[in-house]
Write a structure and sequence with these properties.
The protein is of the alpha+beta class. The protein has a single domain, classed as Alpha-Beta Complex (tt1808, chain A), CATH 3.90.1570.10. It is built from three helices and twelve strands; from the N terminus they run E-E-H-E-E-E-E-E-H-E-E-E-E-E-H. Strand 4 and strand 5 form a beta hairpin. The longest helix has 17 residues. The two termini are about 15 Å apart.
């Protein structure tokens, strides 16, 4: 089982509860799928799951998935898998931080509805570009060749097209 962890959000330390097994299964699937998709990109690096990312002096986040630019080590894509017990941290507080820093891409992954919200940075903040459901595929011009099945993100580790164990 995962351990609790801390994040600093707008100068306040927040203790995050340990993610459930289904949350961890989704994170592992996502990391495996993205690692394969970026294997030929020398400009991008995938951080370990929930690596601390120091965005500012007051914001030290631990995204479930984070891609950084190799040259600058700055994050350009963060993904947060929603945990129903403390979803406000991911869907409101951290999203506001990502928006204020103009992180180019944010994915909010919701296991309850098996969907992925795709946000792009604009001059006016984060803009919801799409909400992808289980039968759809995620692609992005910043990740050439990516065609990520949303179904695969939520698939149980032992079943390539099954569902993740439900404990939400």
């Amino acid at each position: 089982m995962a351990e609790p962890y801390e994040e600093m959000i707008d100068g306040e330390w927040v203790l995050r509860i340990p993610p459930r097994p289904s949350h961890e299964a989704i994170c592992l699937s996502l990391h495996r799928l993205i690692a394969g998709a970026i294997s030929t990109l020398s400009s991008t690096r995938l951080l370990e799951m929930r690596s601390q990312v120091i965005l500012t002096e007051k914001n030290r986040l631990r995204p479930d998935l984070c891609l950084v630019t190799v040259a600058t080590e700055k994050p350009w894509l963060a993904a947060e898998v929603i945990n129903p017990e403390d979803h406000n941290n991911d869907t409101v507080l951290k999203k506001d931080v990502y928006e204020s820093l103009r992180i180019p891409r944010l994915w909010i992954i919701d296991p309850r509805y098996e969907n992925v919200e795709i946000y792009h940075a604009t001059h006016h903040g984060l803009s919801l570009r799409d909400t992808l459901m289980v039968k759809e595929f995620l692609s992005d011009p910043l990740l050439p060749g990516l065609s990520l099945s949303i179904r695969e993100i939520f698939a149980a580790p032992d079943s390539p097209m099954g569902s993740a164990p439900r404990d939400f």
